[in-house]
Amino acid sequence: MAGVFINYRTGDGAVAAVLLDEELKDVFGPENVFRDRRTTPPGAHFPPELWRHLENCGVLLVLIGPNWLSVRDEAGRRRIDVPGDYVHDEIRTALQWRKIVIPVLIDSAVLPTRNQLPADIAELTERQFMQLRVPYAHLDLPDITEALRSHVPVSRAARQPAPADGTAQPGGNSTYDRCAVNNGSGNPSYYEGRDAQSGGRP
């Protein structure tokens, strides 16, 4: 299976994770999209189930919200630094396994710099990112979906992509209308038009 694994931080990107999950499973099929709280059945042994899905996925989407780095545990430690943190461990493992890892910046979030991240996931800053603005999800979700089509099998019942000439389908938007591109500073630059290049747990 070459599916999509949604990595997110509870309390920072959970709403965006649900929006993204709903969009992606509609296009690629629920069997090709992993979001822990939907995919893991009651009573399942969570850690082995999670690592099995991560091993089988082709793409890890790392949802980074405005508070992604600052969320702390009861002892005041950044959760990203705490041993056993699922968000950290999923990213580290996906990078080690040479998966396609795409940071998805939520709303006003910026890509962290290398010195803000633990050393074993600092490579995340070198991955081209995309943008998901929750109030404008109807614009950003089609861009993310289109970027994944070459990596993830499409469900037989999937919606069709926008026509090649860029004309919007009824109720839809033309492909790559507005893309965020990693310019190396952690801040997105925006390009208009189809030719732009886009970059549950605690």
Task: Provide the fold topology.
Blueprint: E1 3-7, H1 14-28, E2 33-34, H2 36-39, H3 46-56, E3 57-64, H4 86-96, E4 100-106, E5 130-132, H5 137-148, E6 178-182, E7 188-192
Parallel strand pairs: 1-2, 1-3, 3-4, 4-5
Antiparallel strand pairs: 6-7
Helix pairs in contact: 1-5
Q: What does this molecule look like?
A:
The chain is an alpha/beta fold. The protein contains five helices and seven strands; from the N terminus they run βαβααβαββαββ. A five-stranded parallel β-sheet has the order 2-1-3-4-5, sandwiched between helices. A two-stranded antiparallel ribbon has the order 6-7. Helix 1 packs across helix 5. The longest helix is centred in the N-terminal third of the chain and has 15 residues. It is globular and about 45 Å long. It starts with a strand and ends in a 10-residue tail after the last strand. The C terminus is likely disordered.
Work out the helicity level: 25-40%
Distance linking N and C termini: 27 Å
How many strands, which pairing sense, and closed or not: the largest β-sheet? 5 strands, parallel
If you compute it from the alpha carbons, what radius of gyration comes out, rounded to the nearest whole angstrom? 16 Å
Question: Which structural class matches the secondary elements?
Answer: alpha/beta
- The coarse silhouette is globular
Mean pLDDT, to the nearest integer, reads 82
> pLDDT under 50 segments (min length 5)?
166-200
